[in-house]
Write a structure and sequence with these properties.
single chain; mainly alpha; three-stranded antiparallel beta sheet
Amino acid sequence: MTFLMMLLCCVCYVMLVRIIALWFPGRGMGIALYDAHHHLVGYRQIGQLFTSDRYFWGRPSAVNYDASQSGGTNLAPSNPELIQNVHERINYLISRNPGISANEIPVDWVTSSGSGLDPDISPAAACIQVKRVALARHLPEQVIDSIVQANVEPPLLHLLGPAHVNVLRLNLALDSYSAAAMHKP
């Protein structure tokens, strides 16, 4: 029975999952994202740390975006450490993003995800950052906002989950726009 269960769980199941993955984008290896120079910059499913005002920032990570250590903080909403961390993040975000108040900041922008690797933020978290990014890039807010709106992804099948913005894809779109704007005559 032990041998049969090992065969079923360790071999058959893994092979089945690998075969099914062949029909999905990335073929089970992740969807790689490249910059304008065709250099690999990351994967669509794994968040990255952005700290420059020229870029949109993602969710905080409990594991510093290290995919080998995926995990959350497991702190309860009433935990004093979590409450202190959230207040510190709110104060930092207010200091770096002109004109926002604490009640405008979406919860996903001050709390880490269960995996600590979430690559997406809510459209509200992206919109709050438009002014900061526009100032840092010396571009009109309308241009940055249109890039954000073009990168809002609808819920799965337009039914499941909320709309979201992939931060790495958004930042790559910003870089592409900036590069194209620099080369215009």
